[in-house]
Structure formats: C-alpha cells, structure tokens
Amino acid sequence: MLGSLLRPIAAVAALAGLAAYATIMLRGPQGLSALSEKRQEIRSLEEQNANLQRDIDAKKLHIQKLKTDPSTQEVELERLGFVHRHDTQFKVTGQRIGSAAATSGTPER
Fold it and tell me: Residues with Cβ < 8 Å from 101, sequence gap 6 or more?
C-alpha cells in the first residue's frame, strides 16, 4: 500500500522539480532573455559587416577607376590641389613682410 502511494507522489515531485529547474534556467542569466540579446547583437554585427563590405567594395571600385579612368584621375588631382598639365604654377619664397612701420625703420609707439 505504501509503495503504491509513494510512486505517484515521487512522480509529481519529480515533475515539480523539473518545472522549477526549467523556469530558473529559462529566466536566469543564460535563459531566453540572454538568447534574445545575443540574437539582437548578432543582427547588429551582421549589419555592420554588410555596411563595411559595401564601403570596401566602393573603395575598390574607386581605386580601379583611379587606375584606369583619366577623367577620374583628373578630378582627384584637382581635389588634392594639383594643377593641370599646361597650367602655370608659382612658388613664392622669402621672408614674410610685416607692418609698414617695421619696414620703414621707425619704432612703433
């Protein structure tokens, strides 16, 4: 009689223990919320990788154009401040000229 009563009580206690364990594990630091956060982080990193890959592809295309396309080369040279092939470039060297009083030799007051 005692054995037939203990078996269902042990089964209910085991199920209650498993339910408590599952609840603790699903709500704990390694549970569903952590899994959701990790998935969100993965999505964010994948998006960053896609953006970086687009940037890399655009820069590779720009480099290829700089190697082969003369008009792209000219635009880039102008952007960097270089002159055209037939333009004249002046370089001014020497001392910097100060105020008129300093060059005339009279002290300023």
Answer: 107, 108
> pTM to 2 decimals?
0.51
Retrieve residue 19's tokens: 């339910």
Per-residue pLDDT tens digits for 56-104: 999 999 999 999 998 898 888 888 877 776 777 677 777 777 665 555 5
CA distance 101 to 94: 19
Please report, for the chain, the start and end positions of each structural domain, with discontinuous segments joined by +: 8-83
Measured at the CA of 44, the angle between CA 40 and CA 45, to 5 degrees, comes to 120
86-to-66, 75, 82 alpha-carbon distances in Å: 21, 16, 12
Helix residue spans in the chain (DSSP H):
2-27, 32-68, 70-79, 100-104
